[in-house]
Design brief:
The structure is a single chain. Helix content is about 80%, strand content about 0%. It has one domain. It is elongated, with a radius of gyration of 16 Å. The longest helix is centred in the C-terminal third of the chain and has 32 residues. By secondary structure, it is mainly alpha-helical.
Length: about 120
């Protein structure tokens, strides 16, 4: 799961960079996915250890970061749906980027929870 965490971190870093470059304002808030991605990649790197306790700790911290990131951006999924229906937003690129970040983090959290459940069953 550590490699998956690093992969999701890299995806978020790329998402932030693409959002920053494609935004005409080059707003620094477009780099928020980069910050979350760097944290996830760092925690994934820390979780790449043989010590099971440390691996569990770092993965639980990573999924908590992912869950908080998802909860902070979840509304943007609805905003994106509204945007597809014709509602105008002041910064449509920001809505798209936040919705993409939200979906990426939701998938990450689901994969982590599934992995945690499988690991617990394997121990039992």
């Amino acid at each position: 799961m550590a490699k998956v965490t690093i992969t999701f971190g890299i995806v978020l870093i790329l998402l932030g960079l693409v959002g920053f470059v494609s935004s005409p304002l080059h707003a620094p808030t477009a780099l928020i996915p980069c910050a979350v991605g760097i944290i996830l990649a760092f925690l994934g790197g820390l979780a790449s250890t043989e010590d099971a306790k440390k691996r569990m700790l770092h993965m639980h911290i990573a999924v908590t970061v992912g869950l908080l990131g998802f909860l902070g951006t979840a509304k943007s999924i609805w905003d994106y749906i509204q945007m597809l229906r014709g509602v105008q937003f002041a910064h449509p690129i920001a809505v798209e980027e936040k919705a993409a970040m939200s979906v990426v983090l939701l998938v990450f959290v689901i994969l982590c929870v599934r992995s945690f459940i499988n690991a617990r069953r394997a121990r039992a």
